[in-house]
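Example 3.
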Amino acid sequence: MAATTLYQPQRGIIDWRSYGKLYDKTFDSIRLKKESVPREGAQFFSHEDTNLETWKVGEVTPNLDTPQKNNDTDRIPLMAPLDGYSKSFTNVQRRAGFIVTRQAIEAQKTRQITAMLTGLPNSAARLEEIAYSSVFNGGFDTVTTGDGSYLFAADHNYEDAQFGAWSNTAVAGSAFTTDSYFDAWLSFQQRDGSNGTPEPRNPKYVYYPTGLAEDVMKVKGSTQYPQNSLNANMPELINGFTPVIGHWLTDADAWFVVSESEEAQRGLIMVWQTRPEFAAISDSMNPDLVMGKRLRMSFSVGALHGRDIYGNSGVS
Amino acid sequence: MARAAVNPKVLSTPSSVGLPEVAMLAEDAKTWKQGQLMYLTSGTVTPVAAATGGSAVYGIAAEDQATATSTSTVNILRLVSGTRLEMYVTATAADAAIGTANLGTGYDAYTKSNVSYIDTDGTTGAQFQVVRLFTDYQAERAVHDGNTDATTPGICEVLFTEA
């Protein structure tokens, strides 16, 4: 049997008729549906607060060239740090709000009004999570890092151009297995610094969409190779990660690995100009506007570099 | 994520407490759902349909008219100039995309299956002027939902002007 479509009034105001429809249908009780916000993305990002609308961050590398053979009679060869990449973040302001009229209060819609009070902060939290996940969701073809390449790409340039390019993605997408995770582990271990010398990372988090949960748990939960008929023991490096399920990830196949780097070193950045803040809405010319709340937030999100992250586009 | 059109959402109104609600006489032999756009004909209100009334919109139905009755009074949210709405886009009967080329242009309304759209094939009354695209004012949401300006039906913010 087909479901019934609701045609919402969608008037952007809680007045005495909004929600009044429920009472018109003579309910004896009204249940508030559970609407919570899974908070997941913030842990992967470095959080910066600024009072600037456009915030620019640059990188500097202390990685100097290796010392040369040089005798006392020769002049000392001088070295300077390499220029790093930079990225500008342009903050965008968002606002939303709701108002309640006197007639709504008089009609005792208090339970609905209470629901709105939690709804507005949750609305902000959802946008925040969508913003975090957009960096992962668009990492293969939309979001770029300071070097101009996509966040997950095989053509990231070293700061010293003579060393060519480095990769933080799989050449071809693959399912999450011990093999493909080892490729990710290897990618982290084989990361180089700005001038091509080893700068290894250790993977810490595997961030994956819900559909890959079984695959990830097979690897995470096993002490032996799931695919190996000889039941070979699996080394700690394979299942030593922390699984993080990503409910906001929109690609059902792509999965990601994040290193154990400190927050300040992470290339994923959330720039806050205004964290979600609320103010009362009032109108001195209209006493029937009893109360209202305005939400305002201003932020931008993006990636300066992808050295501490790995992306595999998966297979469908 | 598949996108299905819904009736106009009121984003903001010139008044701080929303749109004025007025009781009007309903046209005989018509039914509609709350949220549909309505227009006036001979002193009665009636829903904007596929081919009629789209260029002289008066308000939004505040409640369902489930039974076609004459001489009944129904509540209408009267749309006033300066109201901003979020609306879905159709080109006559077919869902349509919206893009930067549509910005600044005024269009008429069109209703199908109890949902009112702006009609990019209709510019007679031009009461609904496209002022912003969904991908601009909800950029992250568009990415999350897997939609672009080319997704049909398109979504945009429109500025309403009274006829």
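The domain at 20-25+38-59+83-312 of chain A is CATH 3.90.1690 (phage-related protein like fold). The helical segments of chain A are 20-24, 102-106, 110-137, 178-189, 213-221, 236-239.
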